[in-house]
Amino acid sequence: MKIIKSVLLIFIFVNLFNLNGFANFNDDNIIKKGFTVSYYRDVSNNATIKDVKDQKFTIPKSENEVLNFGIDNATYWIKLISQNRHELTNQVLYIDQARLSYAELFIIKNNSASKLSLFNPFSYSKSRFTQGKIFKLPAIIEKGSTIYIKVHSNENLILPISIIKEETLLEKISFRGIIFG
Question: For the whole prediction, is pTM greater than 0.90?
């Protein structure tokens, strides 16, 4: 009986810490989805989408999938350029566990900027969501389309950005809630 309990305990322990698919969004990150990433550091914190469209954006030095800007009082604009045509029915852009003061997303179509609202997959009446920032994406993003994400944080600015199906995100967040409370 003691051996069975030990084996069962080891089995549970190994499986709990082997939940890579449930705690990891790497398969859905923006680089693997076919977007090039660059950023602009707005030290004035006042730039608008019209102001930054013509600014020089910097390609991150690191090949890492997570953007890490450290502690900084500046506003950052992340520029994503689609390298392919994407069919994104029921998909969202998700900034995981973001400690952001604010986040805005703009999509450029026909040289005109459209602002997307924050999205809460758990409520249709409240747009605020506590476990990151979520934006519902249009069903199709054409090759060469540009997405701008404006973010600011008073804390460490770390941005794991992914594009993921809404239902998969709901499952992962729900499962994360069960594990971490």
Answer: no
